[in-house]
Amino acid sequence: MPEGLIIKALSGFYYVLSDEIIYQCKGRGLFRKKKQTPLVGDYVIFEAANLTDGYVTELMPRKNELVRPPIANVDQALITVSAKKPPFNAKLLDRFLVLVEFHKIEPIILITKMDLVNKEEQETIDNYVENYRKLGYRVELLTNKGTANSHLFTELLKDKISVIAGQSGVGKSSFLNSLNPELTLETAEISSSLGRGKHTTRHVELIEILGGMVADTPGFSSLDFNQIELEQLPFCFREIKQYRSLCKFRGCMHVNEPKCAVKEALANGEIMEDRYSHYVEFYQEIKSRKPRY
Question: Residue 22: which CATH number?
Answer without folding.
Answer: 2.40.50.140
